[in-house]
Amino acid sequence: MLALWVACGLLGGIYVFLKVLDLRSEISKRLYRSIFALNLVLFLVNSWGLWSSTSRSGLLALASGSLALLFLTKRSFNRRSFMCVALCCLMFLCMSVPVYYINKERLELLSHKVSEVGLAGRKSIWATSLTMFSQKPLSGVGLGHFKWNYLEAQRLMFDRFPDMEWKYTLWAHNEVLQWLCETGIVGGAFLIGMAAWWLHNIHRAVKDDRGISLEAIWAVGMLFLFWMDAQWTRPLHRIEDALWMSLAFALANKELLPRSAPWANVNRLGLFRLFGLGMAVVAIFGLLFLADGLAGDRALALATETSDFELKKEHLEKALRSPMVSDLAERQLAYLLIEAAEITKSEDDVEKAIATMRNYFYKEPQARDLKKLLELYARIDDTEGLKEMARYLKPGLYRIEPREHTSDSTLYVPLDYMSLLSSVEPAP
Description:
two-stranded antiparallel ribbon
């Protein structure tokens, strides 16, 4: 993600060069030289940083944004601006030479990534995502529910692609693919339709020679940069990226999109009033939901602060009644019951703890909770429970065998890759 921010800085640097060049006759030579020199230093530093990051997504994103700037300055501005963008691109490429001689290992690593690593772990993630989409192609799994359906989709994916790696991630590492998984064909058609309409308006603006401003040109370049990066990472899931994209859309759409459309005209005042009433009702329910969530958050905080088992349990059970935090409360309650069972050594307490954890797991399956359930089922020699949970692992990389000196009990035997189950970080 750092490479994306550096790429944004580089595209912003190109815009500054274009702007000072455009204002050269309106500002003093001293101010012009100062801005130019400072921007040049920052541009070279950012160029060094992006090459040294070895991020393929960052480099591709910058290339996409720069190509958009080259195209728009060539068609909608002047030759001088086009040459300025071209020289900036050349300057960035030339920075790879000092990086190679001073920090040779980084470029060798980048070359290794491109030639040998390929898509790395994304092949398995994308195969799982496509499997998830194929299960509910029309409606999708629901917004925000990709991560809760990943383990089940991966289990099905191994039936089709048994040689793929076992991975666990919260994201598809492709925003379009994740959108398709969560919203289905309906949402996908909407997204693709909006993108096609937006690109069509860019084409019309260029064809009609509307005289697009430098700000709008920069904004279009930024959007191409973000959407190229979105094919490899998850920029739309970070608030700072979403804010920059909102600004870019605002600046670009102000000049590129039509100011009015026949289908957008509503002549009946009653429809506006009905829409306003609906928004007011939603806002009121939203405030009530927020108030209830704040009470649930307070109960979770109180449960964290106390070491008394009964009091902690009471606070968590109170938080369970709050829809906003009920999932967090249920998970914390499950782990609290597991801790208590480990102390009491009671079979009833262990079974109750496992039931609570299992119930939560099937609502929001995560790798770390899968690992905990495998450990618990192995501890109580529950063969059926082990088989039920082990089906989320890659077939052929685990086994269930008799415990030594016992005729009928069984034990899960973990392999080295089981350490992956503890991770909730996105795959590389």
